[in-house]
Design a protein that fits this description.
The complex is a heterotrimer of chains A (about 200), B (about 290) and C (about 550). By secondary structure, chain A is mainly α. Chain A has one domain: Up-down Bundle (Four Helix Bundle (Hemerythrin (Met), subunit A)), CATH 1.20.120. Chain A contains six helices and two strands; from the N terminus they run E-E-H-H-H-H-H-H. Chain A is elongated and about 60 Å long. Chain B is mainly alpha-helical. In chain B, about 25% of the residues are buried. Chain C has a single domain, classed as Up-down Bundle (Cytochrome C Oxidase, Chain A), CATH 1.20.210.10. The longest helix of chain C has about 35 residues. Chain C starts with 9 loop residues before the first helix and ends in a 10-residue tail after the last helix. The N terminus of chain C is likely disordered. The chains are: A mainly alpha (about 200), B mainly alpha (about 290), C mainly alpha (about 550). Chains B and C meet through strand 1, helix 2, helix 3 and strand 2 of B and helix 5, helix 6 and helix 17 of C.
């Protein structure tokens, strides 16, 4: 499943990795490098703000929305498995659940930012904490939104009846990206809400 | 993206008349232009960003329909006249000045066993000790003088000539250990490096290496053994080192060489059962 | 328009309207055309960057010169550095990789042909955006147009306070856009090499060029991304009032340095490894021997890739890091000399006992060997922190890294031009003009960059606008400037040679150098589909096997 093979002569079995997967891993490596720079900046600047508000005063841990995002990894996995078993209907249901969970997470971030900006008066230019916090969480949120757009396009195609079992491999490549976005949230969550608070 | 179409003609005996290739498309350049304009808007005006965004969306949608549901491809006719592969140099010469009959040998073909280095080092240590004691006697400071000097790093309280010239049992033990360990290690080094200079092992082992070694010691001796550094006679030191080197070099180069296993495949050297891997010379059974 | 990307005979191409031809080029997804676009784009910027260097050297020719104003001088060194790295060296590397890799691994195109086109145009538009600053960067009066903060744009010079107007933003955005393109191309090259090899070409049988470009693309993915992240932070600082690099609000200027050099030093190897790749293909062919120590070459390259990611802070010894950090970066910098030394010995061993032909490509590669060695030696000197404290930010450093980039990288790229031009155009390059180019450039290079070390050791700092007479710098600066004219003349002859050979050169045939890799088994220039039937290989030198059926390579590998 991870390799295409072609029999060239009678003897040589010729295996190579699938392009989409390799490219997605390349993209994930690049994105991971970008995120690590932002994470390093966040950690380095933790506690270096000259003025308030400080993280421990204003941040509350978004447990519920974190559970939403992380469980969406499970639902997208179930969706792809369903598609592999030719269960397009099951795929559509699980895929929709993934989008719903991702949207809930974005909603959670939006409400948190709204509270921080209008209630606590923390903007990106207030202090170092604001700069690093909005950059890191915003970068992650941007990736979630991009992922949601891609998932929604697939959802639309599914509803139009264009996604079939033979597309499972490509859909799986997209799910790799979504898993990556979830894994990054684990790091961001640890850095922002556990270490940095 | 239709992987199978890439593989289909592989190994085909006859060339096809046409070949399918991805069709040219303008959407990537439009998407790239749009994205650039989005960023350019930051330094010019927002309207440019909006125009760029429109371009980018158009490019993205266009690109999408280039690839989905089916990749757009075009048929290209195959040109006549596939070039024949031929050379103007059919003769093959061998580079043979080291490995007389072996082609593409992995060097070195033979090395000295580890025991050769140790033996050479120990033999050299005897020669060096004899020369050093000789120096003590010739210079009139007594045969214990060089031994005490070698151990002086551990006994900083003994620093006058009178103290250094007489017998100390603990200094003898320390000096013997330093001497034997140092000699064995240097002997090992000779054993490892001598195959790289197959033509004149004694010159390297006997002269060049001791001089380099002396230079190294000269620069770090102050830190290792300040008492020795103050009193050392560098001429005699070099003479003893050369004595060591010549004896060690002779002993090492007299040892039987053993063949390296570098010509064997890695799997065999690593002890992995790999049927067919040993069948190197006729190569038919080796597979990618 | 479907017939546009077919390699038609030139006479027919010329008879079509220009618009049609141009349309064919902008809509192409063919890796060969995109490779040529990359290379032409880089050549144009090479001339622009060279003119900027020339302006600086004329300004520094003698003491108290005022050929240009100090403001223009600052813009010149900023634009020169940025252009040469991002819009000359990178596109040259990518161009050759694009052109050669599918041909060498027996594929019909890159893994993602449309992404390939997209990445090229992003890089191209990024360069145009940067140069648009010359006319478009309106700021306060006298705030200047082109970026003038140096090619590594240290904070806080890039803050709104010290860089009013939009010049720095043009620099940031231009590099950001072209950086996206670079990452796209790198992913494409990586995927192509891993997934598009023809049957029988296992990883251990790939040409070294493919191996080295695999490592290069991995490094681009891991090195350009931090630059992208840092540029985004700089944009946040400049546009949204962030404080990443704002020392007044607790931010740190040193963090920018780290982030920049985490990109900046791997970048050197991103450029150098493809240069090694060209040398590894050219030297065996002109020595008539197989490459010496193929597995060790691969291992050394991977080693360089790893160590190269962990040496960045040797650019920052003078900043005042902790002594343990200094020690680490000194040691890692010294360690990288080991795999590089292995490579140099392997090239020498390839030549040793061979039947060497000193054609132009080989001349450039031999010069590369010695010049790169010298560059590495001054690199070890500067890698020792105490030495660096003396000479950091002096002309010694400038001489060192130009020795790497010009003496090492550019020389092999010239070699690659002469070696693969027959494949790309179907015409041979003129040997006489090629040799003239080599010697002029060689003399010019050594006049400029050998003697540039000396004012550095005499204390001349880099990036100064002018200097007092009587410091002992005058005569060296004059010699350095004279060398630039030789290099410029060499480049003019190079371009003349390319044009003359393209129109008037004699036909090359498919395999003019009697070489051994797959690209020489197809027509010159290759048809759009590369290979009518996909080849099957059994060894690292498939064409050797075909040419010497009684003595094939696969018996020994």
């Amino acid at each position: 499943m991870n390799a295409t093979s072609v029999t060239v002569a009678e003897t040589i079995q010729w295996d190579r990795p699938v392009r989409g997967r390799v490219a997605m891993f390349g993209l994930i490596a690049a994105e991971a490098a970008i995120f690590s720079i932002f994470v390093v900046a966040y950690l380095f600047y933790t506690g270096k703000s000259l003025t308030g508000p400080m993280p421990k005063d204003v941040l509350s841990v978004p447990i519920f929305y974190t559970i939403c995002l992380l469980s969406s990894s499970l639902t997208i996995h179930l969706a792809v498995s369903a598609l592999r078993r030719k269960g397009v209907r099951g795929f559509a249901v699980w895929w929709f659940a993934t989008i719903a969970l991702g949207t809930a997470f974005v909603y959670g971030t939006a409400t948190e930012w709204h509270r921080l900006i209008y209630h606590d008066g923390l903007t990106i230019s207030t202090n170092l904490f604001g700069t690093t916090y909005y950059s890191l969480v915003g970068l992650h949120g941007f990736h979630v939104v991009v992922g949601l757009i891609a998932l929604s396009i697939v959802m639309a195609l599914t509803l139009l009846g264009n996604v079939r079992a033979e597309h499972a491999e490509r859909v799986d490549v997209l799910s790799l990206y979504w898993h990556f976005v979830d894994a990054v949230w684990v790091v961001v969550f640890t850095v922002v809400y556990v270490i940095g608070r | 993206m239709a992987l199978e179409t890439f593989e289909a003609p592989a190994g085909a005996a006859q060339t096809p008349r046409t070949i399918d290739l991805p069709a040219p498309t303008a959407w990537p350049i439009i998407l790239a232009f749009g994205l650039t304009l989005v960023f350019a808007g930051l330094v010019t005006s927002v309207s440019l960003s909006i125009l760029g965004a429109i371009c980018a969306v158009a490019g993205g949608v266009g690109w999408f329909f280039d690839v989905l549901p089916h990749e757009k491809r075009e048929s290209v006719p195959v040109a006549d006249g596939v070039p024949t592969v031929a050379t103007s140099r059919p003769q093959v010469a061998r580079v043979e000045w080291i490995t007389h009959e072996l082609h593409r040998a992995r060097l070195p073909l033979e090395i000295y066993p580890i025991s050769a280095g140790v033996k050479g080092g120990l033999a050299g240590s005897v020669a060096m000790a004899v020369l050093a004691v000789l120096y003590g006697i010739v210079s009139g400071k007594g045969m214990w003088y060089p031994i005490n000097l070698l151990a002086a790093g551990l006994f900083p309280e003994r620093w006058t000539i009178a103290q250094i010239s007489v017998f100390h049992w603990n200094a003898l033990i320390v000096a013997t250990i330093i001497h034997l360990v140092g000699s064995s290690l240097v002997g090992l080094l000779y054993g490892a490096t001598l195959p790289m200079f197959p033509r004149r092992p004694i010159l390297l082992g006997g002269v060049i290496a001791p001089i380099l070694w002396t230079g190294l010691i000269h620069s770090i001796l102050e830190a290792l053994d300040p008492v020795l550094n103050q009193r050392i006679d560098w001429l005699w030191f070099v003479i003893s080192q050369i004595g060591f080197g010549i004896v060690a070099g002779i002993v090492v180069s007299k040892q039987e060489r053993v063949r390296t296993w570098q010509y064997l495949p890695f799997a065999v050297r690593a002890g992995i059962e790999a049927p067919g891997a040993m069948d190197e010379r006729n190569g038919e059974n080796r597979q990618p | 328009m479907s017939s546009d990307s077919i390699a038609l005979p030139r006479a027919e191409t010329a008879s079509r309207p220009l618009v049609d031809a141009l349309h064919g080029w902008v809509t192409t997804v063919d890796h060969k055309r995109l490779g040529i676009l990359y290379i032409l784009y880089a050549l144009i910027f090479l001339v622009i960057g060279g003119i900027e260097a020339g302006i600086m050297r004329i300004q520094l020719m003698h003491a108290h010169n005022d050929f240009v104003s100090p403001q223009v001088f600052n813009r010149m060194f900023t634009m020169h550095g940025t252009t040469m790295i991002f819009f000359v060296a990178m596109p040259l590397v990518f161009g050759f990789a694009n052109y050669l890799i599918p041909l060498m691994i027996g594929a019909r195109d890159m893994a993602f042909p449309r992404l390939n086109a997209f990445s090229f145009w992003l890089m191209a538009f990024g360069g145009f955006l940067l140069y648009f600053s010359l006319v478009g960067a309106n700021g306060l009066y006298g705030a200047g147009n082109a970026p003038d903060v140096g090619w590594f744009a240290y904070a806080p010079l890039t803050s709104r306070t010290f860089s009013v107007g939009h010049s720095t933003d043009f620099w940031t955005l231009g590099l950001l856009v072209s950086g996206f393109g670079s990452i796209g191309t790198a992913i494409n090259i990586l995927t192509t090499i891993l997934c598009m090899r023809c049957a029988g070409m296992s990883l251990g049988k790939m040409p070294l060029l493919a191996w080295l470009n695999l490592v290069m693309s991995g490094m681009v993915i891991l090195a350009i991304s931090p630059l992208t992240a840092a540029q985004v932070m700089l944009l946040v600082d400049r546009y949204l009032g962030g404080h990443f690099f704002d020392t007044q609000a607790g931010g740190s200027a040193v963090v920018w340095m780290h982030f920049f050099w985490i990109f900046g030093h791997p970048e050197v190897y991103v450029l150098a490894i493809p240069a090694f790749a060209f040398a590894s293909e050219i030297i065996p062919v002109f020595s008539r021997k197989a490459i010496f120590g193929y597995p060790v070459m691969v291992a050394a390259t991977i080693c360089i890739g790893f160590i190269g990611m962990s040496v960045w802070a040797h650019h920052m010894f003078t900043v005042g890091m902790s002594s343990s950090a200094n020690t680490f970066f000194v040691l890692s910098t010294m360690a990288i000399a080991v795999p590089t030394g292995i490579k140099i010995f392997n090239w020498l061993a390839t030549m040793w006992g061979g039947k060497i032909e000193f054609k132009t490509p080989m001349l450039f590669c031999v010069a590369f060997l010695f010049q790169f060695l010298v560059a590495g030696l001054t690199g070890i000197m500067l890698g020792a922190a105490p030495f660096d404290w003396q000479l950091s930010n002096s002309y010694f450093v400038v001489a060192h890294f130009h020795y790497v980039i010009v003496g090492g990288i550019l020389f092999t790229i010239f070699g690659a031009f002469y070696y693969w031009f027959p494949k790309m155009s179907g015409k041979m390059c003129n040997e006489t003009l090629g040799k003239l180019h080599f010697w002029l450039f060689f003399i010019g290079f050594h006049l400029t960059f050998d003697f540039m070390h000396i004012p550095g050791m005499l204390g001349m700092p880099r990036r100064i606008y002018t200097y007092e007479p009587g410091r002992g710098w005058d005569v060296w600066n004059l010699i350095v400037t004279i060398g630039v004219f030789f290099q410029a003349l060499g480049t003019v002859i190079f371009v003349t040679n390319l044009l003359w050979s393209y129109f008037k050169g004699k036909a090359a045939g498919s395999d003019p150098w009697d070489a051994w890799t797959l690209e020489w088994s197809t027509l010159s220039p290759p048809p759009v589909y590369n290979f009518a039937s996909i080849p099957v290989v059994k060894s690292r030198r498939p064409l050797w096997d075909l040419k010497h059926p009684n003595d094939p390579d696969w018996k020994y590998e």
